[in-house]
């Protein structure tokens, strides 16, 4: 990333800072070269005035940016709050037999995971192969497939328990580092110097960065939506109610492609994108279905539990889904008579062509045949959800969480 943002010439205070540190390294004192503390100082005094919602402020300016609290909160309120899921289900699915059996005995509820164990399979990298890539005229880049285990406490605090830094085939082949702080209220005085744990959290953040930028933001928020856009333009007339509802939500959707700033080759990156696209199930990711699948309540009543008070995404997205769906239904009923809507939709050749196009040519898994008003409401609501609230969730906090040291 540094190579991508470094200008050809540097003037002013930045020049002085770089030359001072480079001189220490070249002069035979590499231990005096740029440290994390140096990066903190640089971030503090050399930020560009921002136009984002935080106006250039980023997480690296917080005194405890490296702490468990800041690390864990990103799974609830950061750039990628849509992937955390119930751990026991993930353990069973991934074949963690020991953990699936033991963890319920230790703590039978409220264990959640950010599980990127599948990275090697998705990218075509061998189990014992190191994630490494170097673009011409660029620096070396590394990646990893981290798995992070959290416990959600009654007061709503999410606390990291353990991190598999880079999952390789089995747990015994992988390095797992456990948190010395067992609970959120344990003393944090040693956090700054707990370098093994800080390294593990760095691995988790590197993994989540790739998953967010390539898998969630680029693939799920852009490519899935663009497949629907193409399918709609190919099959739905411009005067059809479905086209009229969706068109306004697509006017500013423009993809941004990541190049040589991750530890994957372009071939591996394309494989990963294809894996995420082909394994994304449209129906399973309807907000109520997605919340239930990931181990969270999918009702307003269920989300009143104090454990979820800090999970801003989940507390808001269900209400947003409901509002969008009510809007969609009201618009559809200006076109279809409610008493006859199911039959009319089932016979609407444009709707059926739309489904076939999205499934067959768009290759969107789970975009099933639409046979009634409720199914059409859900399908359209999902498309608006991806283009608007979902994309907003994974897009607008990137500067705050990812431009600084985290």
TrEMBL record:
InterPro entries hit by this protein: LipOase (IPR000907), LipOase_C (IPR013819), LipOase_C_sf (IPR036226)
Keyword annotations: Dioxygenase, Manganese, Metal-binding, Oxidoreductase
Catalysed reactions, semicolon-separated: (9Z,12Z)-octadecadienoate + O2 = (11S)-hydroperoxy-(9Z,12Z)-octadecadienoate
Transmembrane segments: none
Swiss-Prot/TrEMBL GO biological process terms: linoleic acid metabolic process; lipid oxidation
Catalytic class of the enzyme: oxidoreductase
A Pfam entry, by short name: Lipoxygenase
Cofactors that this protein relies on: Mn(2+)
Domain Lipoxygenase residues, every copy: 65-406
EC numbers: 1.13.11.45
Entry GO MF terms: linoleate 11-lipoxygenase activity; metal ion binding
Protein name: Manganese lipoxygenase
